[in-house]
Design goal:
Structural class: alpha/beta
Shape: globular
Helix content: 40-55%
Strand content: 5-15%
Number of strands: 8
Radius of gyration: 19 Å
Largest sheet: 6 strands, mixed
CATH architecture: 3-Layer(aba) Sandwich
Number of helices: 11
């Protein structure tokens, strides 16, 4: 995933997964001459993000890793708390807005730090949940984008998910074993997403049928590969006409979301 001498930006939230990933990549970078940097996205959620920012800052100082914060407010004109107020209705979930902004924010952050690679700490549980969300929402095309192999986009940035074959609880055990302090509080908006339901569903299945998560992971990857290679798969090749970012359509989802929030803000004023 990572070649000798490459600069790697690690998306670090302050949770267990991202801190473990940063720790491991920093550890192996010494023999691979990699320049490791940490980027943190501040969504602007009052009373939630402050703790994690402190944890990330202290951990990066301990590892001697450069660290920079990028905020939704600066990048998109709205904090997450503001976006929730501006949205047309609760049918537009906070998680869908946050996910759209976060993906772009990580790209922008990594490129601004002149990184060759963006590493994110998605684990096996995250992968299963995202697959099911795409399936149940009818967004089959996105399943093809999920195939967990490193991808290099037109902007030259390569994206990797080194922890994607690990169970969430394995990463928790590793964090405790290595004495890595992490934020345990859940996002206050998490209950708006069906992700929590899928997490509970898979955890209950795993208790009764140990190993079933990994079997599902392998099956989902096979399906994802089929969709990815199909003629009907919508490849990410276009550049947004508005911002120039990566998009499947003429206007990217980020610009559409920003426009939606701005338009509804004007309606609320009137």
């Amino acid at each position: 995933m990572i070649n000798y001498g490459q600069r790697v930006a690690v998306g670090v939230s302050g949770g267990k997964d991202s801190l473990v990933l940063l720790y491991i990549l920093k550890k192996i970078s010494k023999n691979n001459n990699n320049d490791i940097i940490a980027i943190t996205i501040d969504e602007g959620i009052e009373g939630y993000r402050d703790e994690s920012l402190t944890i990330v800052k202290d951990f990066c100082n301990e590892l001697e890793v450069p660290f920079k914060i990028f905020s939704y407010k600066d990048l998109f004109g709205s904090s997450m708390d503001e976006a929730v107020v501006k949205r047309p209705s609760k049918k537009v979930s906070s998680c869908s807005i946050c996910g759209t902004f976060r993906r772009r924010a990580l790209d922008v952050a990594a490129l601004s730090m002149q990184s060759d690679i963006l590493a994110t700490a998605h684990n096996l549980d995250d992968h299963l949940q995202t697959f099911m969300i795409n399936l149940f929402s009818g967004d089959v095309g996105r399943i093809g984008w999920m195939y967990p192999q490193p991808i290099t986009y037109q902007n030259g940035l390569k994206k990797i998910k080194p922890l994607v074959e690990l169970y969430e609880n394995e990463i928790v055990f590793y964090a405790f074993h290595m004495g890595i302090e992490f934020q345990a509080d859940e996002c206050p908006y998490m209950n708006e997403s069906i992700r929590s339901d899928f997490r509970a569903f898979f955890n209950d299945l795993e208790k009764i049928h140990p190993g079933i998560k990994y079997n599902c992971f392998n099956s989902m990857n096979k399906l994802s590969r089929i969709v990815k290679n199909s003629d009907n798969d919508k490849q990410i090749k276009n550049a947004c006409l508005n911002c120039g970012g990566i998009s499947t359509d003429e206007i990217c989802s980020v610009c559409k979301t920003v426009l939606m929030l701005d338009m509804n803000k004007k309606k609320l004023k009137n």
